[in-house]
Amino acid sequence: MTTKRNRRDVSRRSVLASSAGVAGFALAGCVGEDPQNGEDEGVGGDEAGGEGGDDAEHSAAASFFMPFDVTRQVAGDSVDVEDLVPVGEHGHDWDPDPGTVEGIENADMFVYTREFTSWQDDAADSLGDDEDTIVVDLSEGIEFIDSPAETNDEHFWMNPRSMQEGVPNVVDALSELDPDNAESYEENGEAFVEELEALHEEFVGLVDDAERNEVVVGSHDSYQWWWDEYDFEIHSPVGTSPDDEASAADIEEVEALIAEHDIEYILYDMYEPRTLAESLAEETDTEILPLSPIEGTTEEQLEDGWGYLEHQREINLDSLARALDAR
Q1: In total, how many domains does the chain have?
Q2: Strand pairing report for 109-112 and 79-86
Q3: Spatial contact of 228 and 212, defined as CB atoms under 8 Å apart
Q4: Below-70 pLDDT ranges, the chain
Q5: How far apart are CA 220 and CA 213, in angstroms?
């Protein structure tokens, strides 16, 4: 069951994450040839998202949707950016296999965030001594908060202010990879940071207008960084990982909280099964609303050009406005 934590103290940084790569990198379950014909596959899983100009000279592989979008926002058309996680998959649940990833070592950059999944950490560590692939930890320099179920909650990107801290990591890496376009990367990074600051102000305005101060999440809890920054309570019977399960005692505690505060909506992760959220809603006579942890995307969202900002504004702010009674 969720309890409030101490606020973090995050310092600004713009230091490049360690450059690396691996010649002949062969991460088990992550790199391989097509078992059908032995030919190399493209970077990314089935229906993985891609962005960049057709004539881009450089390539970047992103470990899931969030770092994919940050990288493409900064890179523009100068770099071919691939999301390794297939469209429709949850970045926290997905594991690569030899049939979905040609080889991260063939990309000029690998962008990830440490402690999100073990395969990403293993890939980054395996690339650590190479000179051909720049490894970028988007979370480098960001101090993780402690959440109820996890020390060092890695979901920093849910807070637009903390997200701003990660953008220079990508700017610096792209500038090292492609010095001729360094000025463009810097400008794109600054523009994205301005958008993130505007998004932060939208969160502040929403919370200021809210009649409520508590929300309930009926899925894995990726959202504690909102509580930390904006000081509204987020309660969930589930931990920060999709693998966590709710106990009967925690479910009863959440149901009591719903009754105590006359909560009308149960929020849920749109990329996970709704089973728990629907069960809570049925037991408490409430409705369910989606949230996006920005760990995946859908075909429709990809076709519409949705990125981090759209997930926050069109899904998260909209649902929070209803759940917090801010409209």
Answers
A1: 2
A2: unpaired
A3: no
A4: 1-54, 98-102, 148-150, 239-244
A5: 20
